[in-house]
């Protein structure tokens, strides 16, 4: 499984011959400018956790260009269709089977509205069962008891969690979340993009090490093997 980080909460997972793009937001991210070109990103599937602009900023353009199937909450899919995206699959919390394997859409404790101000439905995260490694992406969430359900679905091998605080979990909460989902290998996202969510990266890694866990913070544009 290959993981490419595009900044903020946008990343690409390549597994089973498929390219799965999560929460495409590049153009509005100053940290990604000159490093990532959204017009060159390829995807077979796009998973969207919720409707906020820092998660759907490049969704429409990438979906139209690539023809990727957009899988998201019902309201986000309706909005994307209104923007001309045709290949879609709406979900609410639950599981469904796709050519990328079984996929759970699970609750996140956050909010969700769309760029036009309309209701964005319930925010969530995704659990990929069919990947080479079982991967869980929480989406934007605070620490919530719902996370304890995740390992009851499958043994998570790598998890992608927000660590920036203010709008989501911070580093300390993410360590607790890692315990709750029973996964010690964490990729951190949703940090440093804006002033509200800047962190000390080395201190964050050390906190995870002290807790017997690994915090992976890829550079924007970097691809790693998981």
TrEMBL record:
Keyword Lyase: no
GO molecular function terms listed in the Swiss-Prot or TrEMBL record: hydrolase activity
Pfam family, one: Lactamase_B_3
Xref: SUPFAM superfamilies: Metallo-hydrolase/oxidoreductase (SSF56281)
Keywords: Hydrolase
Domain Metallo-beta-lactamase: 7-190
InterPro entries named in the record: Metallo-B-lactamas (IPR001279), RibonucZ/Hydroxyglut_hydro (IPR036866), UPF0173 (IPR022877), UPF0173_UPF0282_UlaG_hydrolase (IPR050114)
Keyword Hydrolase: yes
SMART domains reported in the protein's UniProt record: Lactamase_B
PANTHER family documented for this protein: UPF0173 METAL-DEPENDENT HYDROLASE MJ1163, UPF0173 METAL-DEPENDENT HYDROLASE MJ1163-RELATED
Family: Belongs to the UPF0173 family.
Protein name, UniProt field: UPF0173 metal-dependent hydrolase GCM10023093_12270
Organism: Nemorincola caseinilytica
